[in-house]
Amino acid sequence: MEISFDDGKQAYMWFGDAMFIPRQARPGEEAPRIDHFAFTIDNFNKAEVAAELRRRGMDPREDTDLSFHVREPEGYDIQICSKDLVKKPAPSVSRPSLWRATSVNHVGFVSADYGKARDWYKDLFDLRLSHDSGTDCYEWMGDTVWSPRQGRPNDNRTGYIDHIAYTIENFNKEAVGAELEKRGLKPRIDTDLSYNCVDINGFKCQICDRELVPMAEKRPPAPGRGRR
After folding, report:
1. What is the secondary structure of the chain as a DSSP string?
2. Mean pLDDT confidence for 188-204
3. Closest CA to 70 of 82, 58, 83
4. What three-state secondary structure class fits 104?
5. Is the CB of residue 63 less than 8 Å from the CB of residue 69?
6. What does R_g of the chain's alpha carbons equal in angstroms?
7. What residue ranges define each of the domains in the chain, with the CATH number in brackets?
8. pTM score, whole prediction
9. Bridging pattern class, strands 194-198 and 204-208
10. Which of 46, 96, 102, 145 has its CA 20 to 30 A from that of 176?
11. Quick one: average pLDDT of 117-144?
């Protein structure tokens, strides 16, 4: 990932069009945790976005002139923002690396009411549904899948991000597995195109090939879609 900003308390780390922001916990703040997830929408207009969120019974909290925070049905913090919220840095000279991340492949979200979560995200962000098993689904935004799933009966925690999958360039199963082992991350094979492991804070993540969820599923939206 490429660092475009670092003030000693937080950093902006870019990969493709996505950004990961690690920051230092404040005194008394629960950590580590995934604080929020931000969705970029087309044609961001501050007044129109605020009006639509209120019409849907939400209480948008203004973050900047280019973003709002809302609570989704189970209380998780979601940010809705313009693509200009943070300027993407100019591309740097490519460096050879096994670990060059290119995108978020998918995000696993655990819900107490899977159907409600599926419909809420699909409707609000105009996501395209390509798979639905009745307990989990694929909802597309660009080349990234938002994947709500039903919480298990013994899961006392719901309304949270379970894991994030990072797509890397030139995925090679043996080389990636060996590197994860060398780094002490105890990789577990998920498929021939992905490994499960945990990051330095203990969060579950996947390292995967771009084809983990087949590219054939990434069809353009039907005519008339994509209003957000």
Report:
1. -EEEEE-SSBEEEEETTEEE--BPPPTT---S----EEEE-SS--HHHHHHHHHHTT---EEEETTEEEEE-TTS-EEEEE-TTSSPPPPPPPP---TT-EEEEEEEEEEESSHHHHHHHHHHHHTPEEEEE-SSBEEEEETTEEEEEEEPPTT----SEEEEEEEEETT--HHHHHHHHHHTT---EEEETTEEEEE-TTS-EEEEE-TTSS-GGG-PPPPTT----
2. 93
3. 58
4. strand
5. yes
6. 18
7. 33-85 (3.30.720.120), 101-217 (3.10.180.10)
8. 0.88
9. antiparallel
10. 145
11. 95
In the chain the first and final C-alpha atoms are separated, in Å, by 28
Looking at the chain, how many residues does it have? Answer: 228
Mean pLDDT, the chain, as a whole number?
A: 90
The two structure tokens encoding residue 198 = 């945990």
Q: Which helix (H) or strand (E) holds 78?
A: strand 77-81
